[in-house]
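Archive maintenance. Older records in this collection stored only the sequence; we are now back-filling the structure field for every entry so that each record is complete. The fields below show one back-filled record exactly as it appears after the update. Entries are processed alphabetically, and Cytochrome C oxidase subunit II is next in the queue.

ARCHIVE ENTRY
Title: Cytochrome C oxidase subunit II
Organism field: Paenibacillus elgii
Length field: 123
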Amino acid sequence: MKKWIVSAAAVGMIFALSACGAKESPKAEQANSNPAAQQVKLVATNFQFDQKEYKVKKGEDVTFSLENKQGMHAVQISGVNVGLDNNNKTKTVKIDKAGTYDIVCSLPCGQGHATMKSTLVVE
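Back-filled structure field:
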């Protein structure tokens, strides 16, 4: 009886450990993306994005993606229905209005959080 309980516990432990290490399927991360869309990769480090300005063409699909290279960050783009974080790393939208839109870190990330900004230019 004791051997059976120990064996069942070992199998349960192996199952739990393998589930913890399982990665999300690539389909889940690409669910919002369109392969033909313009790609905008927002790389976030502590208190800055990798570019001061990102440019896209109006009226076309744009897939935004977030990579947290240093620290934990989330992104909001004002006037555009885009909110990215560690649970939602990509989103595809169509922006029909030309203009400039503020990109900000929407997750308090430390002392320089207030200055973590960039711009999206839709031409």
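Update note: The first strand starts at residue 38 and ends at 45. The domain at 25-122 is CATH 2.60.40.420 (Immunoglobulin-like).
Entry marked complete.
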